[in-house]
Design goal:
This protein has one domain. The chain contains 4 helices and 6 strands; from the N terminus they run E-E-H-H-E-E-H-E-E-H. Strands 2-1-3-4-5-6 form a 6-stranded mixed sheet. A hairpin with a 4-residue loop joins strand 3 and strand 4. The longest helix has 14 residues.
């Protein structure tokens, strides 16, 4: 299986890293920093990364995630067919949770993003 990373922007649009659409959403066409980390931590993007045939990682900074990005990620999770979901989220440091249920993962993402 091919390694895949995609990001939901704060407007809920899906972009792929390194594409013109990604750099437009980032607001920087030639970043001299890690643009994926910056987008997740500072701009509220939600990153979905396929780790293997059965596992997807969802990475986000809950305090910065806008509702359209959250809904886009939840929609993708509900239709992806993966067996394991690893949520990586930032509070004062990075934390991890694992779930074997899309429904639980969707609910947990909502809980994490409540202001």
């Amino acid at each position: 299986m091919q390694h895949l990373i995609m990001l939901a922007t704060s407007e809920g649009q899906w972009v792929l890293p390194g594409t013109p659409e990604f750099f437009t959403a980032l607001g920087d066409s030639k970043p001299d920093y890690n643009p994926l980390s910056f987008a997740v931590k500072n701009l509220g993007f939600v990153k979905l990364e396929v780790l293997d045939r059965s596992t997807v990682e969802i990475e986000m900074h809950p305090r910065n995630v806008e509702l359209p990005a959250l809904l886009a990620a939840q929609q993708q999770i509900s239709s992806c067919g993966f067996a394991l979901f690893r949520i990586r989220y930032f509070e004062t440091d990075w934390k991890f949770e694992i779930s074997s249920s899309a429904e639980h993962t969707i609910a947990r993402l909502s809980e994490l993003c409540i202001p």
